[in-house]
């Protein structure tokens, strides 16, 4: 639906589909996470008729996600107590950093793959920053509108 807005589509292209990868549970193994990211991106590529354009960034952010989670939260913190990343489980600042970095990586890589064909460097930087800004805004609006009930893990087996 966001692809159909003509004035936005020329320069700003907001992406929300990769939010699914960002919201996957903490305990998802890296190989499974990477495979899910690849298949998710490949499915989108199939429907938008773009060979590999979305599969590559989705695979990249799925692979980098565990590294970023380990950097942003303590080992005995949210990862051990909550099932998936959210504002509640990570806190506002770490979650915003998590979303910002992975959105910037996703949009940067996606626009870079598009930019290889045509465009100038300033077009590339502008489109990455504009698309990332609008995507982050929409991600936080989505986070507010669709409140996810947190599953709290206990130590009892």
By secondary-structure content and strand pairing, the structural class works out as mainly alpha
Beta content comes to under 5%
Shape descriptor reads globular
Domain unit count: 1
- Multimeric state of these chains? single chain
For the record, give the distance between the C-alpha atoms at the N and C termini, rounded to a whole number: 44 Å
Number of strands: 0
Number of helices: 8
Radius of gyration: 16 Å
The succession of helices and strands, N to C, reads: HHHHHHHH
User: Which residue ranges are poorly predicted, with pLDDT under 50 across at least 5 consecutive positions?
Assistant: none
What about the largest sheet? none
Instruction: Average the pLDDT over all residues and give the rounded result.
Output: 83
Instruction: Give the fraction of residues assigned to helices.
Output: 55-70%
